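Hi all, long-time lurker, first post. I run a small reading group and we've been trying to get comfortable going from sequence to structure in the token notation. Rather than ask abstract questions, I figured I'd post a concrete chain and ask someone more experienced to write out its structure so we can walk through it together at our next meeting. Sequence below, copied exactly:
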Amino acid sequence: MPPLSQASRPLMWNIPAAWMMYVLFAAALAVFAWGMYRRVQFWRAGKADDERFRDLAKRFGILFRETFLQKQVRNSPFPAVFHSLIFYSFAVLFLTTLVVMVQCDAKQFLDLEVGLFKGWVYVFFTVASELAGVFLLVGVAMAAWRRLAKKPETVDTGPADVLVLLFLAGIVVTGFLAEGLRIAVLGDDWRMLTPVGWAAALVFSGVSEQTGRAMHGAIWWTHTVLAMGWIASIPFTKFVHMLALPANVFFSKLGPRGELRRVDIEKTMETAEGDGEIEIGVRRADELTWKQRLDMDACISCGRCEEVCPAFLANKESFTPRRFIAGLRQSVHDLDEYRRNRSAGTGDGYLKAVGAEAAAAPDIVGTAFDENFIWHCRTCTACMEVCPAFIEHVDTLMEVRRNEVLIQGRMPPDAARALRMLESQGNPFGPQSDRVDWVETMGVRVVGPGESCDVIYWIGCCATFDPQKQKIAKDLCTLMGKCGIDFGVLGPDERCCGDPARVIGQEMLFQKIAREQVALLKSRRFSVLLTSCPHCYNVLRNEYRQFGGEFNVVHHSEFLHEMLWGGRLQPKSGREGRYVYHDPCYLGRYQKIYDSPREVLRAVPGAEVVEMKDHREKSMCCGGGGGHYWMDLKKGERINNLRVRQARDAGADTIVTGCAYCLHMLEDSLKLLDFDGEIRVVDLATLMLESTDGAGPKPKR
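-- Answer (accepted) --
Happy to help. Here is the structure in token form:
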């Protein structure tokens, strides 16, 4: 074998009419360009969303991390393997083709001998592309097995999915066959660099040169037509996600996950006085933003959202994030098709037609899905956590809810009842006088307007009005006293933070509450705003910023962690047992607070900390999110039952959490499942107080 430093092979061998390839390439690019123009016009038909163009440097960083490093794709093991095999193999094959193109085109059009594709460069790209072809076929085979043999219930497979896989396999197989015929007819001193091509050459050994050339030409042109067809098909098939997904990642939401878009209600009302129509939220397909339309094209129905959606796991007929996006996409396509058929042309005439026919667009609710569909979502964002396309399911769903509540006046009766209580009494639980009376019995300082302290403790409605949850507030206050913290509460000035109104969709009521509470908080001087409720935490930290409320908000799990490691709290004892920590959605996925509560739990003597099947980023919702603490939509299994069974399967005798709502939902489930004799649920503050005061109650078995 000649030295590898001299390795090379003839390019465009046996292809006399190579100019036809350029014709096909130009045609493929033209079709691709037309298709992409249509796609971009489809996106641009949505309403403005200017927030997506700030912090470009950060966006490019996210694009690199998610597109080239495949971080989000890797959160599901088996799909991560075959997707990575296909993606990186395709990248290698593309680079190899690019190098060959430079060499050929320099000679073809500039009469330059570049000499790029030879020697060690040839060795590298030949071996790399050979391996890439093999790995790509392995990836395609794995994807085909998953879709056609394993058939997970969260993955729908249609002809388009099979066509995509056949396209990729066909391009690679014809490439290997063409390589084998070249080696069989022409020979190759460096054929060991292409073992698959060499193996194919052995299959064709013995064919005459004339037959071999004819077969090579036919297969080479088949390979070329498939490649050019693939380029042309990208905007019209599921291959479009190759462009839509990176674009969606680039334009993804940069703000806190828990910060919903603010609608200027006052300005909307003023505008409505002039034209008589109020537009809040999303009612019709033509009211979606361009980013929401891009979400729809980026979705490839991979089913990952359904695998973690608590509503789907509890009842596969009630709600799924994938069906939500698919329904919106169908609504938009139906509307656009209708308008194309009605429009006489493009340009100004088309735009006028769109404006004139806006009223003809059907409502999303009632056509894409029924009135109950959107209310089964728990807003836990598990779908957004695992979505490789960074689709914002919950944000869009909340826009639909806003319209249903504020414009259509439709919501579950239980939700309407909670909102009426919230509007009339300042909270969805009971009279404000009950809050005042209970705070007085606590004996804690009430910080009035103009007064100051180090920490203001925002107790939250659930811990105030529910006698069983009042223990959380009492225990936390006791712990702050032990630590010598200068703290106080708002007393009668503390009302509901407005979270129930916002997650249900009553934006007008939420904004009224937010403005009032921000003003009341600003009238006090303090360093830390402490809360034991993740829902309050999210609103106080992320939502109130929209109303000028910039506060240093701390969850009590973070506070306890700081007190422990600062030496102010000293755990003395604890009962031996197996403890699991349940991540509240609004503390975990929303705020990314996972480690502090676990560190506090591990500090308890005798605590053997184990994990449930779904934990941290993939923690399962307790079932009370999205306003469901006040709604009981009886359909399928209860989500809190699913969660408690996970704790039992982990062998836990104690479930620890940092949310009063989660504690309530899990306690209810223990009673329903008759597990309350063997498992208890306790808040982190209560557990820490038990440990610092002495041994707490022995876990039930």
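A couple of things your group might point at:
The radius of gyration is 31 Å.
The first strand starts at residue 455 and ends at 458.
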